[in-house]
Amino acid sequence: MTTNQASTLTDAAYQRLREDIVHGQFKPGEKLRVEHLKRSYEVGATPLREALYRLSADGFVSVKGQRGFRVTDMSLGELEEITDLRVVIEGMALKRSVENSNEAWESAVVAAFHHLTKAENMPEPDIQKWEARNREFHLALISCCDSPWLMRFYEILYDQHKRYRNVARIDKDARRDVHAEHEAIYEAAIAKDAAALCAANEIHIRRTAEITGKIIGEIHAQD
Fold this sequence. Notes:
Layout: H1 3-22, E1 31-32, H2 34-41, H3 45-57, E2 61-63, E3 69-71, H4 76-99, H5 103-120, H6 127-141, H7 148-168, H8 178-190, H9 194-222
Antiparallel strand pairs: 1-3, 2-3
């Protein structure tokens, strides 16, 4: 096997494992046994271990000596920290994106918001479609950010937040007007008002974290 082939296998295993962890296929604290994963993912032990170590660097997997790999546990304290970091990192990315924005950026934001609005107004909610459109909208907003580091940290924090949201099962909560939150973000973006954009985005992030935290607290109280 060539180096490029091994790298491709590791990348594929990394992406699949990350998606499965984010979407709750593996529960917080669950042991990730390489032998079992080899059968499920049809990939060798070496690419799997490399993928798991990469996921540990991103905070999705914990490694404890000879005890192997486990899905990182969740806590209300960690949710608060992830939320604070996401507000800061995403705010920086949004400012850079607005500064570098052009007509293509504006067209992408308009299109993404249109698609998200359609997904939010469906008579029968399609959670998977909504999740995809939601991600596309937020990515469009920061698409002109010229910092690879900010984009990398954004992706990690977005997926960490999503992992909490998926465990709490609050993709769309009846007690809030998610569309109104997105509309406020959209209007500030189109106006290229970076301060208003960051403020509206922070409200949106913290509202999600607030509801997620309440539900996770209720789940922990039942355990």
